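CORE FACILITY INTAKE
Project code: CF-77B
Contact: R.S. (postdoc)
Sample description: multi-component assembly, three entities in total
Requested service: structural model of the whole complex
Turnaround: standard
Below are the sequence entries exactly as provided by the requester. Do not edit them.
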Amino acid sequence: MSAVETFLEGTVRTATPLAFAALGETVVERSGVINIGLEGAIIAGAFGGFVAAGYGSTWLGFAGAMLAGIAMAAVFACFAIHVRADQIITGTAISLLGLGVTATLYRQLYGATGAGLSIPTMGISELPLLSSIPVIGRPLFAQPSITYVLYLIIPAVWWWMYHTHAGLGLRATGEDPRAVVVAGVAAKRIQVLSVLFGGALGGIAGGVLVIAQAGSFAEGMSAGRGFIAIAIVVLGRWHPLGVAAAALIFGAASALQYFFQALGWSLPYQAFLALPYVLTLLGLAGIAGKAVAPASLGRWQDQR
Amino acid sequence: MTSPILALNDITKRFNGISALESVSLSIEAGRITALLGENGAGKTTLMRIAFGMIQPDAGSILVDGRRAHFHSPSDAIAAGIGMVHQQFSLIPAMTVSENVALGGKGRFSSKEIASRLHEVSERTGLTIDPHARVADLSSAERQKLEIIRTIAHDARVMILDEPTAVLTPRDTAELFTQLRAFAVSGGAVILITHKLTDALEHGDDVSVLRRGHLVLSSRMSELTEATLVTAMLGNAPHVLSARESRSAPSRVAASLVQATIHTKSRLTAMTVTLQVRAGEIVGVSGLDGAATPLLRVLAGRVKPVSGEVKLPQKIGFVPENRRDEALIEDFSLAENFALAGAGRRQGLMQWHAMEADTRDVISVFDVRTPGTAAFPAKLSGGNQQRFVLGRELIKRPDLLVLENPTQGLDVNASVFVHERIRRARNDGAAVVFYSSDVDELASLSDRVVVVSGSSLTEVSADRDEIGRALLSVERNDER
Amino acid sequence: MNAELALVADALVRATPLIIAGLAVAFAFRGGVFNIGAEGQLLVGAIAATAVTLASSGSIGRFSVVLAVVAGALAGAAWAWIAAELKRRFHVLEIISTIMLNFIAIHLVSFLVRGPLQEPARIYPQTETFIKSGRLPLLVPGTRLHLGFALAILLAVTLAWVFNHTAFGFRVRATGASPAAARIAGLIDTDKTSLAVFLISGALAGIAGSVEVSGVTFALYENLSPGYGYTAIAVALIAGLNPIGIIASGIFFGILETGASALQREFAVPSSLASVVEAALIIGALTIAAVRGRHPIARVAES
């Protein structure tokens, strides 16, 4: 593969788990809730996927990942929506909980070393005609099958959000949960279901990391992707298509390191490791508040 | 005899042990306008929220066309043909008219379908609105029209309106009642929640009066006199719209704006004003759609004008309209809330002993009913909260006192108290500027009145009709 | 007897950075600033303290420790300032920016200890070890308990006093509880107050880092902090964001983590169990706060 194809392939690879997580969080935030515990859902999904895949197939693994993500989200929903505890703090606690529980369980179940455990991994599935398209064919259509699931979910969520009454209710809830109740919309139920959906996709994102990329679990392997995904939601302006594009752009910017390495530019490797986080800051600074958040989400951002 | 279209029987509701409604019954007949009268806090809104499914009664039943109904949420009530037009917070400003009308529906969403529905409603009632307009761009009167259209579009047979005339000019008010009468004539029923006697007298066919959670009167309007109604609303205390006093001529200028350019709330337009407020006078400000707020906030020193000259005194007292978010901190005790005044400039250590003593002074002088200085604002009633806030601002003897809608939502006693204190401050030499949406209050309390629009400032005398006329012409100018 | 004393001392040593970083988090949260970046601010504080100590302890002796702590505070404040400025100028949510800065700080440490600051022999990914005069003196000889613990107590008491008795502390609390009321009723400059909160919070976290290198590790290396900055959030929340309470919850967590390490050595119980307990405690604290109806910090997304 040429350098360009390597770069594009890396772009899609990096973007896939981020897109899953960010898409889920988009639905959550459009309902007016912010789930900082997304990181917890991702790492739980990674671990859940690791365990479930060990019992059978890769698809069983993804099912396990999804359930693990939903479980973390359910705890968040219980405290943040039902009990109305502070969303930021609850979310932070969920992330800590996820990281701690998965690390503990991993060491318990697989011993202190935990090395050399193998699970079935999802390899590349080339799509017949599509992968032959020059330049973008292989990067887009020679990916693990789970990526194709992503390609289907993105337009589905978009259509649902803008062309059904349920999607309208979601968007309205995010603007003003009090107003929609008066119009006959079940705001709280929408918020809970959105959070669970976000957890499911977050869990799948974790599953992608383990089953379709690394092939094994490592403590803390989510590496802040949950928070990066939240930034991607902002960059994508809370729109499913925008978020998908933002994830892709982020993936591209991260994949640039391959270019640099190929060109022989010698930067300390830590600079590449830090790159995603620096990019997130630059991206958010670049958008500079021009993106308009759902109004009731914006209520907690210090009002000027 | 056909059963009433909606019947509420023996409704009881308590909040935290305090009784809001005690065994209240209401019978609504099709084709008629029922006025639900009562002072602020009498329980009218609570009763209608129960009828609309927003809250559940502790006891009692709801019957629709004679059949028992249970409303667990507004969607149940809407399905049963009950619609409600609210005072605020019921439309999504960022969304269009169609989207707001469509809320609560099921299945696929198509704006074409909604547009044709709206067209249908418009053919039937003559009420038209642009389906693609953003609600944020609509005026208060248009938003209210949208809410009415929405209830009709959802096939409401009973339309409940909560204090609909609060935000309307006299002309819009007349327009509203024409529409309501047409709705009733076509077979619907209208319930009008209001604390304004005049609206009830002029337009109500039936009237029910609530006082402190009890139904004290329910009858056909034709069988009543105004005096009976007043007594029913207030008990035996006559409604004293505190009498105007004569006062000495105002003296030096306390606050002045010269060619000050102020952004309106939406930041889309700006007005340039020149205004002087003198010590020893009360200036009433009237305006539509929040036009008055920016002006008051500049006078109170909370907002800086874009350009121009502003001269303000050192000590300013400010009582904002949004008491819960802008005047008080829920998590702070009363003493800490007292300390909030002047916190911005305070240096060094907090003198809590002195603060506590001053808080106790405010509580006693302003007759605030509270368990003590350590109590939290939520424990106080609205009237007592306002007394406290007013006391906090007045105790430092400000040279300028600015108030936004100071008696909104307060019962008669608290309102009279607030008026008294405002007059006393004026007599003590302070300059007072206040905004009110109530034309009668403006007329009785002000020494002079200014009417504000998005672009201009007009001065009129403190006469009810003159103020009304000025509002009308300001509205016409803005529309041009 | 000595073994027990050693364990208690160890718990207090472990508690020290948790208390100081916990104060940093509590100060921020009380002021309405969601500083989740204590971890990164702590690390850059450690970097600054290390650099200053290595550069000066040979020449000015004990005084280098003081300089190190000050340098740590300044570095932590500077790291927090980045997030503050991103928020002020570009409306970037501090929750995200501070976490991003955490990760950047971790990689910065890695780069420094493998590069410019690496020990002369260039074998291990760490800096030179501090000489004796560059270290914090011990409170109890024979144990590891160092002066940093006393500093932690002092900072906690000072912070409590600031909150309850100073006009500045009142402004911080008002801004955190309700920025709108603070501005309108109190005429408080909430922008200026928020900036001060960011900087002081960062400084406190920086001090936690510098105290850790000057009192415990005596060198900078990767994985210096096993997540102190995040645990500090739990410490702060469980104490209800109360400075004196943080002393107690910090010590409690210190015992928990020391005990967990001991358990791991003795019985192979994973020490990450402590993180689970911590997170569970936060959720418990949240429930209690929500049930009581009062939040110790500014309400975020109230219904």
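Facility notes:
- The first helix of chain A runs from residue 3 to 30.
- The radius of gyration of chain A is 19 Å.
Invoice: internal transfer
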